[in-house]
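Example record for the data management plan.
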Amino acid sequence: MGYLVLGLVLFLGVHSVRIVADGWRTQTRARLGEMPWKGLYSLVSAVGLAFIVWGYGLARQQPVVLWVPPIGMRHAAALLTLIAFVLLAATYVPRNALQARLHHPMVLGVKVWALAHLLSNGNLADVLLFGSFLLWAALSFRAARQRDRAQGTVYAAGSAAGTAAAVVVGAVAWAGFAFWGHAWLIGVAPLGR
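Corresponding structural encoding:
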């Protein structure tokens, strides 16, 4: 469990700098330069992610069961992860109403993804992993909205075509991951086969 915790501290820690020390982040980025800052940020993120994957894999070998979720939670998780994939797609598809309305769909997607996995998994490692991401996403979304208000950020209006594209791209990506990718990468077939 220690590797999982270390990974979460590194990965979510570097992703929390803007939440807890935005001024320091801005000054350090200016002092180091854009590319060195991004390189350092990416390196710490990658190391953290590697520890998360490794630690979670080790923790799954000797699970500590806190509760057994009802079967119906799998269906709720499937629906919620579909929403999370659509929100993730809305981050990258230009001029869609989801981004225009929600402003930070990626962070909301992480929040929904983490909640889905908390509902459908009851092991200690799951609670630690997905609970940490849920807490981070909630704090990150709040901080991002506060920055938007302080800076007077205005988001471009979405179009029907952009919104439809975000929904289709998200749904197709979700289907590919739910039916094949999750079992291949994680070793669990969430929708069964």
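Summary line stored alongside the record: The longest helix spans residues 34-61.
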